[in-house]
Amino acid sequence: MKELVVLFLGLIFVNNFVFARFLGLCPYMGVSRKMTDSIGMGLAVIFVLLLSAVSAWCIQTYVLLPLHLEFLQTIVFILVIATLVQLVEMVLMKFSPALYRALGIYLPLITTNCIILAVALINVREGNGLLKTVVTTLGAGLGFMLALVLMSSIRERLDTTDVPEALKGEPIAFIVAGLIAIAFMGFSGMM
Q: How far apart are CA 20 and CA 47, in angstroms?
């Protein structure tokens, strides 16, 4: 149990996919302008991440391994992820049209968010059981959401401060992203 808690917290703070592995940067930079959009995207990614990782684990364990079709895992996982993202899109369009419009192009881009595929492949590669897969997936998803929320809170503040003209917009966002990544490196003792 202690190992799972350490793994979970480590994926949020130390081995954060955005800050330590530099995965998922497109939605990280694109959706982190407003806090509400960041929270919505974070929840959507966690939902897709959890469903896709568990589905990938089940498919790998009960279909691909018994049939010796492991070479198809990447293609199958991508199809599972694309299907789940379409499901999330339909649910958001029906129940939260404002969030659906706010997320815009970044919602279908969850399909190509490399964190989703990376978590599924890492769980399979490490031979994680179902419980460890769920813990790993939730830690990675919450770490991604934390990155979005941190960046959006800073960007909202930057919109009201006096930033030199040459750094307004994306340049200052990239500088801030780098500084946050350095701060997170401090959690791992890599300074």
A: 22
Q: At what angle do helices 73-95 and 114-125 cross, to 10 degrees?
A: 130
Residue 184, in any domain of the structure:
no
Phi, psi angles (nearest 5°) of residue 52: -70, -40
Q: Are 180 and 151 in contact (CB under 8 A)?
A: yes
- The pTM of this model reads 0.86
For 115-169, write each residue's pLDDT tens digit.
999 999 999 999 999 999 999 999 999 999 999 999 999 988 888 888 888 888 8
* HSE value, Cβ hemisphere, 13 Å, CA-based, for 122: 17
Tell me how many domains the chain contains. 1
Dig out the tokens for 69 from the structure.
Answer: 């079709």
Task: Give me the domain span that covers residue 117.
Answer: 32-144
